[in-house]
Structure formats: C-alpha cells, structure tokens
Write a structure and sequence with these properties.
single chain; 114 residues; Arc Repressor Mutant, subunit A; 0% strand; elongated; transposase activity; DNA binding; Homeodomain-like_sf; RD_transcriptional_regulator; Transposase_8
C-alpha cells in the first residue's frame, strides 16, 4: 500500500514544469508556417514545441494579421504596442477622473468657506 506522503512525492517528481516562450519566439515559430511554408508538424519539430502549441501560435498570428484582437498575449510588435497604449490610456483616463473630482471638491469647499 502506498502512503499519502509517497503519493505526494511521486506527484511532485512527475509534475512537468511549464515552459514560457517570448513573443518574439512565438512570432518566429508561427512565421515558419505562414511565411516559409513549413507544415505545422515540421515547424513544431524545428522549434522543439508541441504540434498543438504551434497550431495555436499560427492561428493567433493569422488573427492578429486580420486585425482581430488576440485572446492570448500578442505576438506582433504592433499588437504589443496597441496593448501598451490601451493600458496607458486607461491609466490616464483614471487620473483625469480623479483630477476632475478633486477640482470639484476644492471648488465646493471654496464656495462654502466664502
């Protein structure tokens, strides 16, 4: 009979670590299929990634090139820039709202003290 502590150790030893890939790596990999006419299987083998991973990256790059917003992290430099600009815009709009409220509060205080 296997004790629960032995099972836990076995689970830890067999657990795979998830590999992380940069946007540049994903872009390069997907371009093997879309630009250099590799098959998905050939590109996956060449880049040492799984076929389903390569399928996902190719599908994502196709969507980005069609102007659709990616569900995952963007790969093209343009999509990365758009994401960063959207974050900056949201931050600036939030600051603008805070300043408007602060100005209104200061104005009402000023009128009440007059």
């Amino acid at each position: 009979m296997i004790s629960s502590s032995h099972k836990l150790i076995g689970d830890i030893l067999t657990k795979r670590t998830r590999r992380l890939f940069s946007a540049e790596f994903k872009l390069e990999a997907a371009q093997l299929v879309l630009v250099q006419n590799y098959s998905v299987t050939e590109a996956a083998q060449a880049m040492n990634v799984g076929k389903s991973t390569m399928d996902k990256w190719v599908r994502q790059l196709k969507q980005e090139r069609q102007g659709k917003a990616p569900k995952a992290s963007p790969m093209t430099p343009e999509q990365i820039e758009i994401r960063e600009l959207k974050k900056k815009l949201a931050r600036l709009e939030e600051h603008n709202e805070i300043l408007k409220k602060a100005t209104a509060l200061l104005m009402s205080d000023s009128l009440n003290n007059s």
